[in-house]
Amino acid sequence: MRPWSLQSRLLLVVAAALVAFLGLTGFALDQAFRESALTALRDRLQSYVWAYIAGSDPTVSRRLVLPEVAPEPRFDQPGSGLYAGITGEELRWESASALARDLPFEGELAPGEMSFQGPLPSPVGEIYLLSYGVVWELADQDELRLTIHIAEHASGLRGQVVVFRQTLWFYLGAAGVMLLVLMLLMFRWGLSPLRRVQIELARIEDGTAQRLSDRYPRELKGLTESVNDFIVTEREHLVRYRNTLGDLAHSLKTPLAVMRTRLEASAEGPCAGEQEELLAQVRRMDEIVAYQLSRAATSGHQTFAAPLAIEPAAEEIVRSLEKVYASRGVICEFEIDPKARFHGERGDLLELMGNLLENAFKWARGRVLLSVSRVDLPGGRRPGLEMAVEDDGPGIPEDRIADVLKRGVRGDERVEGHGIGMAIVQDILRAYRGSLDVGRSGALGGARFLVRMP
């Protein structure tokens, strides 16, 4: 699995925290509203009790005269969901809405005692029931004890809770989405300097920029300055390294040239055999020095190398080779992607293409084909390069391909002809983390050298 980006990680953590916070907030508000609605229902039922007490009068015959107008019109509407009942000594009364409903208006409470229950099952469905015990003093110190029952169907409370929940979760959800969008914008703005670093590093790799800019927050200032110092140090080190190699080449080649000249001048003396052997060893030392310097001069893979166009370098090499092999009439054709670029030193590119093309010109009968294409890599990485050199010569037998590639791998091996060239090619490819495949050309019928570079 691909690792998550910083923005995705932060957004996931914030989303989880936001969902947990909004969920707990919604649950708390839902419970608070339900308790509040339940309290309001109890207070409303209790107000109906007070209304019945205030509007009723007991008689001497222990009867109770109820108010002519009910406290709420629904008490007079059958099946309205609001019910009233009074029970006591040889007395049972129910409102018109409660007639034939068989509601649980039972039990007697002591004077001043109140009971609130619900939701309770009943023939009409779940109800909330408030009961209150009262006592009226009659003549001759007689008392009339009654219990007033007020009930309401639970659907009213449930409807309020459902509407509140729908409204609550709609607005909480909308707020959550808005907060997530706001957080996403904040993260994008907060992480934009990191994305700018990535973009500027890609431009440096492509050669369109030389260094990172200075417009970064102080948290990234140390990082960007260190990267700039690294880029400058890498380039300065490469220049010093190549200058040192050039000085070394001059320092070694001059004494060797003097020794070879002296030995060649005195090769006819009395010790001609020993001098000839010394001359051969000096020549071999000269070849080894040239080979090792060519290997060491290869700069290799560089992260911040400037891109080089392929076609100008190829034209320069082919012009020279066509003059050298003019008598054979060899023609080189190009199939070069204009977007293809070589990220490295120009000398390495010339050395790589020069050796491959020279080998093709040497064995071709009349045609050489150079094909170069750009290779796009996933993850926004710098594009790679694929280069093929083909000829119409005799080709290389399959059983000899491995031997051809083995020659020149050892840096101290003395090789003749194109051997040192193939050794340099392989050394350059190893330095640039590339690969070389040798086979037969499907287009021209000769050898085909395919180079792939990341």
UniProtKB/TrEMBL annotation:
Record's protein name: histidine kinase
Pfam families, per database record: HATPase_c
Nucleotide-binding recorded as keyword: yes
Species the sequence originates in: Pseudofulvimonas gallinarii
Residues of the HAMP domain: 188-239
Catalytically driven reaction(s): ATP + protein L-histidine = ADP + protein N-phospho-L-histidine
UniProt cross-references to PANTHER family, sorted A to Z: SENSOR HISTIDINE KINASE YKOH (PTHR45436), SENSOR PROTEIN PHOQ (PTHR45436:SF4)
Enzyme Commission code(s) on record: 2.7.13.3
Record-linked SMART domains: HATPase_c (SM00387), HisKA (SM00388)
Transmembrane segments: 168-187
